[in-house]
Amino acid sequence: MTFVLAIDQGTTSSRAILFDARMRPAFVSQQEITQYFPQSGWVEHDAEEIWVSVLTTVRDVMKKADCGPADIASVGITNQRETTLIWDKVTGKPVHNAIVWQDRRTAPFCDELRLAGHTEMVTTKTGLMIDAYFSGTKVNWILQNVEGTRTKADRGELLFGTIDSYLIWKMTDGKSHLTDATNAARTMLYDISKGQWDAQICDLLNVPIKMLPQVLDCSADFGVTAIFGGQIPISGVAGDQQAATIGQACFATGMLKSTYGTGCFALLNTGKTLVKSKNRLLGTIAYQLNGQTIYALEGSIFIAGAVVQWLRDGLGLISEAHETAVMAEAADKTQSLYIVPAFTGLGAPYWDAECRGAIFGLSRNSGPNELAKAALQSVGYQTRDLLAAMQKDMGSSKNAVLRVDGGMAASDWAMQFLADILGMPVDRPQVLETTALGAAWLAGMRVGVYPDQETFAKTWALEQRFDANMIEEERDTLYAGWKDAVRRTLSKRSK
User: Fold this and answer.
1) Which residue among 134, 322, 410, 418 is the one 20 to 30 A from 92 at the CA level?
2) Which stretches of the chain drop beneath a pLDDT of 50?
């Protein structure tokens, strides 16, 4: 049997999934990775641990499938996007832990850049806000704070990459220093209209352009790996949210998807037009195929599934994520509890790096059930924030449908609340592994074992539609309570 291997390197785990000839996930292996929090608002990963986790899961999934490299037609990679890594081009050793996309340590530097009047230039070229979320200021921080790195970078001895680049480099034994357009678009160093690294921004952030990888289409020849016992081409790469957009077959202008992993990311396909948001959303690349760039509006929520992880690991209220749905159903319906999960600040449309999480509406009768319900609801409220901003930029559509995926999408309770608070249908596909599927299709299509774009889109299949059942008055009341809770959480700087 012929498989396509998808490597899904996410924020909390690495996964390897073998997709069969019909593009169905056949075998899966997963391994969690350690989260490091050196200071408040700082989040790091050990790049070596990430690499070992990828090796381990790939070898494990191949063992489960009883297959060798000859049975794998191609490899696709999808990854946590803005997470930043710099390594020695000779030894391959990282000079510092990977600085995760959630990390806020460069917020003061971003403030300086904004005050210096660089916002318009950066947004026009990159589609992004000046924010600590993106890779550019993280690169600057490493070069400024890790001894010896500035000199080595200037000498051309160091390489920068998002996690996809690092994995490609490791898998090809240092032969390929590459990325794709979707990951490049998230660095705040890439001009998404011209399709090239921007010298002006690199100079502004003091990032040597020679550190940066070459940028290819999402489906392209990224090199060949031999580390699994034979020659396998790496043929597909996309950042996780863009891979999910592809996996959901959101190829037509106006199609909308939202992925619920550690964070939540909603993307609206805007076609060949790069829309400049007036509501603090991001302009980005949805995908790039055959040299043709398709753009999207994106709203980013930093904490989605991670709030459930917090209930488990931080508070010890649950042992498994699925318990939250039962608890939410059992919660006291008379309480209006709001969790604003601003553990690392708030993303779109607020972009407040300084605010921190808060709980409002606690009463003497508030307990684990009410907290679980509020945690799940917080994801719905934040999604409504994003879609409201998108509607302001693009206009509302009466026929709009939200396609969902990611771990939290498996929760019927959470998805029903999402439909209720949005007042629109929510479609859950049969294949929830849409992020990995997107990477697999990019890779398989390149080597001719998977169909073209149009045929692939026809394979998308609905598992369940959640229709809005909540009356409008209740919906508006609940959302007004959320907006008030956010207002009280925002930092003074953002007000």
Assistant:
1) 134
2) 494-495
